[in-house]
Specification:
With about 475 residues, the protein is mostly helical. About 45% of the residues lie in helices and about 10% in strands. The protein has 18 helices and eight strands. It has helices spanning about 50-65, 65-75, 90, 100-125, 135-160, 170-175, 180-200, 215-225, 230-240, 275-280, 295, 305-310, 345-355, 365-375, 385-400, 410-415, 425-435, 450-455; strands spanning about 5-10, 20-25, 80-85, 260-265, 290, 310-315, 320-325, 340. Strands 1-2 form a two-stranded antiparallel sheet. Strand 6 and strand 7 form a beta hairpin. Residues about 1-40 have low confidence and may be disordered.
């Protein structure tokens, strides 16, 4: 049986939404939903469960088409990972040109393509003639989750961004930038709606390749953390941690597609993750596509099991390089999918929220959650006993736990106030100015693509990128 998804024609800008249509297309590396081989229009796609399911599954497939570029760009922007080739060099130097292909096409264009597809799904399901059902609620909840997920990354990469919520071509083509605070409000609205729509239906827990209520709580916890709503961040992360369907795994099982630590992952039919293809070298004598900086490699103590299990050293021309070895399979067949969210993040979100609430040590404290992650890595309990020390301990643990994953280090440095000048600068200034001679404070935002500003005169450029 063939496998099908609903996908959009590639749309690299808000202004080209006019050419985007939903088509039923064959896809041999996604999810089998048993749909017939045909083409259908946008309105008809949401009038029955099979085609509507295909439309929403297209959101997952769309992310899979560009997720490795997301990760590569943001990981290179931080201080931990370097590319072997020069393709991502401007992200390493934090001097991204306004016409950068990676920024314009993958970070901006592909993300807005997902937004458009989600908008079609949300509007189509709301206007659908399909009878109300648990399937319809599930699909609408998933679509709202992916719109929120897309806007979360857009607002963190670019700051204020256009925020189309519909499919009107003229309106979308000329939208100005929306304040980041308002984008965050919409993200929370979408996730709150999604949580209610998905209810307690955890039928996807077998392979964790569909969004469920716990997945929504996990993203909400992250959003509340970034918004400095510590009480809600603690609450949402706690809901996921307390769900017995999830548990921290042994380090050598964390990135296997059957792992109970996984909250959400993107499926494929080969069992080879895009991140395995991206990080794993061909042999121990081959140069990896990305390797760790000395700063990150030396941050691991020798008794940290993540150093031995998640990092592999290769020797090329007599020089040693540390490569990310979380995923083990580069090609052929395997048992790995692209992990989007996992339980360890929820412990560290709750630890940070509790630290801000000044619950540093003792029961139900930042210390307890931090030690859960440290002990899993074979490390002794933290010695941080003050709020400031705990913040730094959590920051370091997030770096050691999430290197190579979804730009966590980059986003953490950008969102956290500087220790030296917390009013005007961020931790990115503290850390990256020491390691990158070209660093400037304005580099915490990527440039709005030059091509978009030429098309839409209501768009303005981020500071630091005007010639």
């Amino acid at each position: 049986m063939k496998k099908y998804i609903i996908n959009t024609l590639k749309c690299t800008s808000v202004s080209t939404f006019a050419i985007a249509l939903l088509l039923l297309v064959s896809c041999d590396d996604f999810v089998d939903i048993g749909a017939p081989e045909m083409q259908i229009g946008v309105e008809e796609a949401f009038n029955n469960e099979a085609s509507a399911t295909g439309a929403v599954l297209g959101l997952y497939a769309g992310l899979s088409a560009y997720d490795e570029h997301y990760v590569a760009c943001m990981e290179c922007s931080a201080d931990g990972v370097l590319p072997y080739t020069n393709g991502y060099g401007s992200f390493v130097s934090n001097a991204i040109p306004t016409n950068s292909y990676y920024s314009s096409y993958y970070l901006w264009g592909s993300t807005y393509n997902t937004v458009l597809q989600a908008n079609y799904a949300i509007n189509g399901l709301n206007e659908s003639k399909m009878p109300s059902s648990s399937v319809k609620s599930q699909l609408l909840g998933e679509a709202k989750f992916w719109r929120a997920f897309s806007y979360f990354y857009l607002v963190n990469m670019f700051g204020d961004v256009p925020m189309p919520l519909g499919t009107d071509v003229i309106e979308n083509a000329s939208l100005p930038r929306t304040a980041a605070s308002d984008v965050y409000d919409q993200i929370i609205t979408d996730l709150t709606d999604a949580k209610e729509l998905l209810g307690m239906d955890d039928r996807s827990l077998g392979d964790r390749v569909r969004v469920n209520q716990s997945g929504v709580s996990a993203l909400l916890a992250r959003v509340y953390l970034y918004r400095e709503d510590w009480v809600k961040a603690e609450s949402e992360s706690g809901l996921v941690i307390s769900n017995s369907a999830y548990e921290l795994s042994a380090l050598d099982e964390t990135f296997v597609n059957s792992c109970k630590e996984t909250i959400l992952q993107i499926a494929n039919t080969t069992g080879v993750s895009k991140f395995g293809e991206m990080y794993v070298p061909v042999s121990e004598q081959s140069m990896p596509s990305f390797y760790l900086t000395d700063n990150l490699f030396n941050s691991f103590s020798d008794d940290d099991l993540r150093k031995s299990m998640w990092i592999k050293q290769v020797t090329v021309n007599g020089q040693e390089f540390g490569t990310i070895f979380k995923y083990k399979v580069k090609s052929g067949t395997g048992n790995e999918y692209d992990i989007v969210m996992r339980l360890a993040e929820q412990y560290l979100i709750r630890a940070e929220a509790r630290a801000h609430l000044n619950r540093i040590t003792g029961a139900n404290s930042a210390e307890a959650d931090l030690n859960t992650i440290r002990n899993r890595a074979g490390l002794e309990n933290t010695d941080a006993s003050t709020q400031s020390a705990m913040f730094l301990a959590i920051e370091k643990e997030r770096n050691l736990e999430f290197f190579g994953e979804w730009g966590h280090r980059w986003l953490d440095l950008k969102r956290t106030p500087s220790i030296v000048d917390p009013t005007n600068k961020t931790r990115a200034d503290d850390v990256l100015s020491e390691n990158k001679p070209t660093w400037t404070s304005t580099a915490i935002l990527y440039p709005i693509p030059e091509s978009q500003i030429k098309i839409n005169t209501k768009l303005t450029q981020n500071p630091g990128y005007n010639n």
